[in-house]
Amino acid sequence: MIRINEVKLPLDHSEVALHDFVINKLSINKDQLVDIHIFKRGYDARKKNDIYLIYTLDVTLKDVDEEQLLTTFANDHHVKASPDTSYKYVAQAPENITERPIVIGMGPCGLFTGLILAQMGFKPIILERGKSVHERAKDTFRFWRTRELNTESNVQFGEGGAGTFSDGKLYSQVKDPRFLGLKVKQEFVAAGAPAEIIYVSKPHIGTYKLVTMVEKMRRKIIELGGEIRFETRVEEINIEDNQVSGVTLSTGEVIPSKHVALAIGHSARDTFKMLHDKGVHLEAQSFSVGFRIEHKQETIDAARFGKNAGHPLLGAADYKLVHHCKNGRSVYSFCMCPGGVVVAATSELESVVTNGMSQYSRSERNANSAIVVGISPQDFANDPMQGIALQRKLERNAYVLGGSTYDAPAQCVGDFLAGKTVSQMGDVEPSYKPNVKFTDLSSSLPDYAIEAIREALPAFNKKIKGFSNADSMLTGVETRTSSPVQIKRGKDFQSINTKGLYPGGEGAGYAGGILSAGIDGIKVAEAIALDMLNA
């Protein structure tokens, strides 16, 4: 096949426009064009009233000497041979395998580590401290309604990981020369995701679809010989002479294995402490803190798409913003959720944490995203455990500011910028559940963070008209943007000082989102499989 990149066509182009473009571009006749496969479709909305679709196409031809054709286009970087994007397993377990690898955690990284190991015949044992995704969803929605928190079953802990209660975004900026991201998306489609996630430039799934997909993927792992245990917390990772020998569960049961994947997510603070106490090499890592900001979705649509707002191929508009402040800090938008809601995402008692969530339809009235300030290891003495302590301090302070009821502290943007408290909302109704309490957010974050956000919001308004409108809503606090800890690993994906321990995903500091965590999970599975075969 031939790949044609950067094919630019008007938003409302005709059905035959792609065929006409290919025929003219390659100087072939229509009978030589067999098929056009859309590998990727995005859009260019830099001119909101003149939006274009941008395609990458894989073209099947007949009666054409493709080598000669490529020679003709040798100086045109838009025309190349289509690469091989198929996934190839690196190993196959022998039938008489005696050791079973252990996977701790069943978020996106753990899910794909377990799935790929199972597909290669290694019959992994997956240990998840939370509940199955269906039961976990019940506990999470109950907390949002009644303020009854289950610290082991919530937005952070349980099958599917934190990404289950999000927008279900499936795009990433990680380099992916092996097209592992495509493997992740293909598995999601096989489990029931919309087929469009394969080719749209910013695919998303939404919470309700993710729940059923994760259940199907779990069944697939079990059918392939894997074992999954829910409500099973790892109390200790057993290490002998710097080599993992197995795990001890909270029940006292010991499971032996010399290959343990650690896919614990960014909120398993007790596990981080256990690893630190055991001497596993951890390093402090930058993270960010801030608020969730909400606008009416129609405000963002108009600012981004102009007269094209509401076009079915564009959907609800998103944005990505960054501002470098005078005090040396950077403020940026994170985890933008079009047509979504702000959700309670704490996993600890007497703490408030916010996150954003959308369904596949992205049809809620508000848009929301995190507006966060970068925190460097120097801000917490370059100590990974102090980074966790800082997060916890801010979350517990937010709990008090919200009235000590799991309501979140909130403030209109106009009042926040003016430094005053007004106990009523404006035109943007906050979506956070259980509820919000209007207060002065200036004491909810370090002074340098408040200063930076107050500088950034008016700057963002120059890029997105209406962004810093007085009625826009801030809800605090957002602290779980990423892990403050990195569990250092080598090129073999093993901990640099603990053989047999394979840190992966967001919690270990090697991913940021569903897609990149899934990709990292595949790499961890491959490393484990190859090491087990060579042991």
From TrEMBL:
Task: Pinpoint the FAD-dependent protein C-terminal domain residues.
Answer: 286-481
Q: Which residues form the signal peptide?
A: none
Q: Cite the PANTHER family for this sequence.
A: FAD/NAD(P)-BINDING OXIDOREDUCTASE, FAD_NAD(P)-BINDING OXIDOREDUCTASE FAMILY PROTEIN
For this entry, the protein name equals: FAD-dependent protein C-terminal domain-containing protein
